[in-house]
Write a structure and sequence with these properties.
Helix 6 runs antiparallel to helix 7. The protein has about 400 residues and is an alpha+beta fold. The N terminus and C terminus are likely disordered. The chain is about 65% helix and about 10% strand.
Length: about 400
């Protein structure tokens, strides 16, 4: 079968049945006119029409005709031979040539189909002229025009089918691309949420647990000689656990951190310094510069978390005695600075992140700042303290992505 032939669809099935009915109708008409006209070869004509119908009907029933081009060509040749017999017996057989055009163009390759149509049209013209015992141009017009119409219709249909197939493939590719894009967006969303939770866990729970651990160690050192001091450390540890439990519930629900509720960012940072000074052996101070302006919640959350993480690192790793947090408002930016007098480190060789020892803080800070279109700078020298500065634009940049609320 022609490999370029369209696959069967409801429309093509309907057209095929119309072609079947047309051929059977024309064969019946030829046999009926032979009987009604009392032609001398009426019996032979009816037999030829019946044989043509039988050979034609065998084609759709044979699977090989639908699958093999060679089998389809042999079947068409058999139909054509029987049709030529009918045409030799009756001039009415000329009308069967028209549906044969469509059959040949549909089942054969383009060149072979065109050659078969031409031969069929020539046989129809010659057969009809032989029955009329003369030839005129008018006799050639009908079969030739029918052949031209069949060629135009079939080729146009095949062109439309190819275009339709191209569009179908494009739609399938588009659908597949949209599915891949949706999957990629879902994966990106999952990774973004995982990164958000990782940052929140590091800046709240992990730092809180580290603070509780330091307080409990201090309480352990104070026992048994200074029970009052140990009790204060235990109370501070218990309060830190309460605060971090509230933080955990807040960031799981994606709400504003408790530290920012009913207060400004400056107030939250001042409270952070006061809490750190009361819980640990460090003097933490807060300083505000510039004229405060309202900030987006994402900016406030990011700056608060950075300050919490930086101050926790100062307490846990830098062994500093003093730390100062500065919140400065400029014309087009807001800056957070954290300065301590701790042991410092080499910024070119930051601590390697480790599940046991930590080291994820700096990476989390950079991720927060970069997600909002800002910049993070760190200046430190071993033995001479550390200065950390986070700078965010007051107006979000076009390529920044809003930080999820904690």
């Amino acid at each position: 079968m022609n490999t370029s032939a369209p696959a069967l669809t409801p429309t093509t099935r309907t057209l095929a049945w119309c072609l079947h009915l047309l051929i059977i109708g024309l064969l019946t008409l030829a046999a009926g006119r032979a009987v009604a006209g009392s032609q001398s070869h009426a019996g032979s004509t009816v037999a030829a029409a019946a044989a043509c119908a039988a050979v034609y009907a065998a084609g759709p029933l044979l699977p090989s005709v639908r699958r093999s081009r060679r089998a389809a060509a042999l079947w068409l040749a058999a139909v054509g031979v029987v049709w030529l017999v009918l045409l030799a017996l009756s001039s009415d057989g000329v009308w069967v040539a028209f549906p044969l055009y469509f059959l040949q163009l549909h089942l054969l390759p383009r060149r072979a189909g065109l050659a078969a149509v031409t031969a069929t049209a020539a046989a129809a013209i010659a057969g009809f002229a032989a029955h009329q015992h003369y030839f005129s141009a008018a006799m050639a017009i009908g079969p030739a025009l029918g052949a031209a119409v069949a060629v135009a219709v079939v080729w146009a249909y095949q062109a439309l089918y190819r275009e339709s197939e191209q569009r179908r493939r494009l739609i399938e590719e588009l659908t597949a691309t949209r599915a891949d894009l949706a999957q990629a967006q879902h994966t990106a969303g999952v990774l973004a949420e995982r990164e958000r939770l990782a940052r929140e866990i590091h800046d709240t729970l992990a730092q809180g647990l580290s603070s509780i651990q330091l307080l409990l160690r201090a309480a352990e050192r104070a026992l048994p000689g200074r029970p009052d001091a140990a009790g204060r450390h235990v109370d501070a540890a218990r309060q830190a656990a309460v605060d971090n439990l509230a933080e955990a519930r807040r960031f799981v629900a994606a709400l504003t951190p408790p530290a920012l509720e009913d207060t400004t960012l400056a107030g939250a940072l001042e409270r952070l310094c006061s809490t750190a000074g009361s819980r640990h052996r460090i003097t933490a101070r807060f300083r505000l510069t510039g004229d405060p302006v309202p900030l987006a919640t994402a900016h406030e959350v990011a700056l608060l978390r950075i300050a919490q993480s930086a101050l926790a690192n100062t307490v846990s790793h830098a062994h500093a005695t003093t730390a100062e947090i500065t919140l400065g408002y400029g014309d087009d930016h807001v800056a957070l600075g954290v300065v301590d007098d701790g042991t410092g480190f080499d910024p070119d060789r930051p601590p390697t992140p480790d599940p046991e020892g930590g080291g994820f803080g700096l990476a989390a800070m950079r991720a927060r700042v970069h997600s909002l279109g800002g910049a993070l700078t760190i200046t430190s020298t071993p033995g001479h303290g550390t200065t950390l500065t986070a700078r965010l634009p007051l107006t979000p940049t076009a390529d920044s992505t809003p930080e999820a609320r904690s």
